[in-house]
Design goal:
Number of strands: 35
Structural class: alpha+beta
Number of helices: 14
Oligomer: single chain
CATH class of the domain at 82-239 and 249-255: Mainly Beta
Distance between the termini: 24 Å
Helix content: 25-40%
Largest sheet: 8 strands, antiparallel
Length: 686
């Protein structure tokens, strides 16, 4: 998202920290890796001296309250583990497959059991094994998108470190001094004392001790304590089945963090998550259903909320999904003349309504939707040949985006449409909040609209690129920086293991973090990629394409087209996914149309790429439109139907009342989509 050359006097160095003119040292550029092909890291440490563009915005200070985070670590918002550190009380976190809940004196562990009802699948945290520590506080001291380390202290002195990681079916506690850990009574030696076991119902929990080099020793338990020498790690694990348990016992070695990299080649977006084990040591890792693994050594399976997890013996998970191509609007120019004329007539009406209608809104969510709607209408008008209307709406759209992106340098307490850097939360916030965005809820949803709108308007317009680049760079860094230091986290909301984003900033919930609108998450990375392409930044466009491809694959797998559902669950989609439950429910409405519609808007053409199951599309739309299409998100339901039945969808769309068209959409875009679908022009690669 940063220009690779100096444009208009503003170079990438000045935006992303710059170099040291006294030493000639090259600037650190997180969005420009040394090589823009092959495996590229997205979780690397930035130099402490790096000042991101985000931190160059005007400053404000939020009120996160009492959080359990080291002062040198950017608060880990929007993570699967955020609730452990950012709420009033530590919440359970779901590491897949284990869940854990920390407190100041220890940690409880559980292997969730899956159950289902008509509207919900649950796998709640149930504490069944507790490790008691000689400590009185804990804080997050190291974090990456997949794993986190907590340091336990006693009267301020560090005594040990707790490591949790997604896809690692263990909880590891490493002693920083000789100590005893309190464990449940009645543990039984197994495998010659190399590990201890206890049964809780149909689940067996195990404890093993490993040295810093991964070597194992006999575990000596005296009553209800296990002694640890400095540097040793106590590893807890659990399984339902002796064979799986034996593999977990053999793979019990320390993991102190993860690193993530990606590659795009041969039509595949690949993800590699490497777990920091001792040199030469493998552990056991758990792969989610959406992850197509490269040459896996499967040693077992474990049930989970999202389906069976494959257990593999490895130090890394390497998986792939089909690459999707960023796309902005249906290609109206390819339509036949009659279709373009129909769109042209509608554009004239929509532009007149836009100019005379309600002023754009002031908050970062609805304000973002407004500028995105105007930018889409601009491009459709230009492609349809509605030249006068196109000039009118372009002028209006540019003016509105200027108010947002050009005004941040003068962002004051009286401003409404601007962005600033929050020195407490360590990220970019809008002056007028929406849906808890001041606590970092939904930033990727909100900022994706601005990035996409800017791409639509600024492509081929160097002056607009120059004018908007500083603020857009800051927005991109907030949601997608591939590097971190104390001023900014890496990939704030994006979870490379789960394959999707998390929406809650604090995640102060017993069910873990959650995400509702999978489609707005897809739109975020689509918008990021489009803006990077418009600004000539191939490296960022490549990263955003990886995120887009992975998020879209997970949206299909876990929201829109889930497979292998329990018989008790009586719906074809999920509207809300958590760490500990999955629901046919939304935060804002109980209407059936809301359940599907929130997974569709703003109906980017990328939704038509990949594997579209026409039978599932028809079934989902049928359930959502039980009261007809004159309903909430009726336009999105109609456009989604066009992927399976374009003729019927066009007939429905032409009759759709204005009340069924979302405030982020226009009838022009609706028609363009439906006519492109009828012409067979929507489907793309994947």
């Amino acid at each position: 998202m940063v220009a690779l050359v100096v444009v208009g006097g503003v170079g990438m160095g000045s935006l992303l920290g710059g170099g040291d003119p006294s030493t000639g040292r090259e600037a650190f550029h997180p969005f420009r890796p040394a090589d823009s092909s092959g495996w590229t890291s997205v979780s690397r440490e930035a130099p402490p001296s790096w000042t991101p563009a985000a931190a160059r915005l005007p400053r404000t200070e939020g009120a996160p309250g009492a959080i359990r985070v080291d002062e040198d670590l950017a608060p880990p918002t929007n993570r699967w583990y955020s609730g452990m550190f950012l709420g009033a009380e530590p919440q359970p976190v779901f590491a897949m497959p284990l869940a854990a809940q920390a407190d100041d004196t220890g940690v409880a562990v559980g292997l969730p059991r899956v159950s289902a009802s008509e509207r919900t699948i649950t796998a709640p945290f149930i504490p069944e094994l507790r490790l008691g520590l000689a400590a009185d506080a804990f804080t997050a001291t190291r974090a990456d998108p997949v794993s986190v380390t907590s340091t336990y202290t006693s009267s301020g002195t560090p005594v040990g470190e707790l490591d949790l990681a997604e896809g690692w079916p263990y909880v590891g506690y490493t002693a920083l001094q000789d100590q005893e850990v309190t464990v449940p009574a009645g543990l039984v030696p197994r495998d010659g004392g190399r590990w201890l076991a206890m049964g809780v119902g149909d689940t067996t929990y195990g404890l093993a001790v490993a040295g810093s080099d991964g070597s194992r020793r006999v575990v000596e338990s005296s009553g209800d304590v296990v002694g640890l020498d400095r540097g040793e790690t106590l590893l807890a694990f659990a399984a339902r089945g002796e064979r799986t348990l034996a593999h977990l016992a053999r793979g019990a070695v320390p993991v102190h963090g993860t690193s993530t990299s990606y590659d795009i080649s041969g039509g595949q977006a690949r993800t590699r998550i490497t777990y920091a084990t001792p040199p030469g040591r493998r552990t056991v890792l758990a792969a989610m259903p959406h992850q197509r693994l490269d040459r896996p050594q499967v040693v077992g399976r474990v049930d989970s909320l999202y389906g069976p997890l494959r257990l593999v013996s490895s130090r890394s998970l390497v998986s792939s999904v089909s690459t999707l191509e960023p796309d902005a609007t249906p290609d109206v120019a390819r339509l036949d003349e009659d279709a373009r004329a129909e769109v042209r007539r509608q554009v004239v009406a929509d532009v007149a309504r836009e100019v005379s209608g309600t002023p754009p809104r002031q908050d970062t969510y609805f304000g973002g939707k407004d500028v995105h709607r105007m930018a889409q209408l601009t491009r459709i008008a230009e492609a349809a040949g509605a030249d006068a209307a196109a000039r009118t709406i372009r002028e209006r759209a540019v003016s509105e985006l200027d108010a947002w992106l050009g005004g941040s340098a003068e962002c004051t307490e009286t401003s409404t449409r601007c962005f600033s850097y929050d020195t407490a939360w360590k990220g970019v916030v809008g002056r007028t909040a929406a849906f808890g965005s001041e606590e970092f809820n939904d930033h990727h949803f909100h900022y994706g609209y601005f990035l996409a709108a800017a791409a639509l308007l600024a492509e081929g317009e160097p002056r607009l690129l120059d004018r908007w680049r500083p603020t857009l760079t800051a927005l991109a860094e907030d949601i997608a920086s591939p590097a971190t230091n104390s001023t900014l986290p890496a990939l704030r909301s994006f979870d490379p293991y789960a394959g999707h984003s998390w929406a809650a900033g604090r995640s102060d919930f017993a069910d873990g973090n959650n995400q509702e609108s999978s489609s707005e998450a897809v739109n975020a990375w689509n918008g990021l990629a489009l803006w990077a392409e418009a600004d000539g930044n191939r490296a960022l466009a490549r990263q955003a394409t990886w995120q887009l491809s992975l998020e879209a694959a997970s949206a299909r797998a876990y929201w829109l087209q889930p497979r292998n559902l329990p018989a008790a669950y009586d719906h074809s989609i999920f509207a809300l996914n958590w760490g500990g439950k999955r629901e046919w429910a939304t935060w804002f409405s109980a209407e059936p149309s809301a359940m599907l519609g929130i997974q569709l808007l703003p109906m980017s053409p990328v939704l038509a790429q990949g594997r579209v199951d026409e039978k599932r599309v028809r079934a989902s739309v049928s359930e959502a439109s039980v009261a007809g299409f004159d309903t909430m998100f009726g336009d999105s339901l109609t456009m989604y139907l066009a992927l399976a039945d374009p003729g019927r969808a066009l007939a429905v769309g032409r009759r759709l009342p204005d009340s069924a068209i979302d405030d982020g959409n226009t009838r022009s875009y609706l028609l363009a989509w439906l006519l492109a679908a009828r012409a067979g022009q929507l489907q793309g690669p994947g």
